[in-house]
Amino acid sequence: MEVNAYMAHKDKASWFVNDRVHTDGKMYAATPFDPLFLMLAVLERCPSIETSFHRRDQILSCESCPALGRTLGALVADFSPLCERKGKEAVGDDSSLWRLDEARVVAWLKTKVEAVVAAMALVSAAAVSGFRSSSARNKKRKRSDELAGFAVALVSDYVSETWAAKLSEAVTGVTTSGDRAAAAKKAKTSASSGAATDADIAPLEDYSKGFKKSSSTASAASKMTPAQKRLSQTNLKG
């Protein structure tokens, strides 16, 4: 499980729970976490893992993170989503040989992106159910692109810069460059803020058509009293 703590305000925040007030304004969210993300980090630190096959025990006993390797040994039995396996031994057997496979890793990361997009699209669909128009369809396509960028940025937080760039290229066709944190922040802000622009709120039709503007004379006449109207019709020239 992955646990995150959120606080809306740094200084003042509290929660009302039943009949008590909790001054700690943090909200904790626990979500399932795929240990293969950690396994990928271990595989990256294993020498020559992309060029030669290694036994399971060799991978898990990596010198750079031995404690993590021992923990993952109990959590991950199958490396096939990330690695190519050599031999016909049963999965989990220490005699199996594994080699990191870029195509498998990218395909596995894409499934994570697709899961995020599907979850967010489901929420968006529930919010606008029953609304159909050409502009809505165009916005839906634009929204799908935004969700894909958001999902890539979200998944990229759990992998190295190298895999983040390969994932971005595979999903969006664009290779990430520069500071990934700034790019991720921009993508998340664009997808989640929902701020309206001038183009979004501009009317599609001119509803003032068909309405005639009244002249100053007609306006003045409409404001005259009956006595003033009779006086205006009187011949004052004699």
UniProtKB/TrEMBL annotation:
Residues 210-238 are annotated as: Disordered. Residues 213-223 have a biased composition (Low complexity). InterPro entries: RNase_H2_suB (IPR040456). GO terms for biological process: RNA catabolic process. GO terms for cellular component: nucleoplasm; ribonuclease H2 complex. This is Uncharacterized protein. It comes from Thecamonas trahens ATCC 50062.
